[in-house]
Amino acid sequence: MGNVNVYSFLKFAKAEYLHKMRNEGSLHLKSLRYYAELEDTEKGDPFEGVDRIWQPKHIGELTIRTNTSLGNFTATPLRDLAGPVRFRWNRVMDCNVYCLFAITGPVDGELAEVRLRDMGDSAVLILNPSEFRNRIYSAAYKAGLNCQGGAVEYYSGEDYSGTVGPFRKRSRFAYQQEYRFVVWPGSGSPRELTLGSMKDITSEVLPASEVNQCLDFSTKSFQEAGLGAA
Description:
Elements: E1 8-13, H1 15-24, E2 26-31, H2 32-37, E3 50-54, E4 62-64, E5 73-75, H3 77-80, E6 85-88, H4 90-93, E7 96-103, E8 122-126, H5 129-142, E9 146-151, E10 153-155, E11 162-163, E12 168-170, E13 178-184, E14 191-194, E15 206-207, H6 211-214, H7 219-224
């Protein structure tokens, strides 16, 4: 899990959900299983909820032993496997997550890629990420839940073998600059958290297509705000 300075969050979603988020602090948290099974090239990821991953080139031999009449199965990974071996726990798959785009420093080019519009037709800027964290942690605690937030780390889908968990994703998703809050025990189905009105720490709801024109996080703006260039 990456520890980074976050200056602002952006939430992309349908306008109706973002208005409800601002007015009531209503957050809709889907499970990792939902994203793993979702047939959507940008929102869905079959590697969500994976605990560990092993690339074929990092496995000497793979043997599956059973206590049934099926017997044992042995494979030579580089010859027999079409892709990496993935291991999942149901308790991780059932965790609920709330995903955001994190602004962690100056951006002199395009702030958000066009592909992010697939997340929704609108966006809201969270102006005080520290206060937002406090509110979501408090709401989770009141609901008897654990909550952990962190920046997603991105790994090579062709080369990486090791621990994955809820805070790592393949590098093809790096453009999402994701920061997520993970809540458990998971429900396996969508979960709602209510934080109360967030009008004091959020922008108005913006059309997703206008985000790059409306928001300025350039190096010049950072310097003028006394934040430096890094």
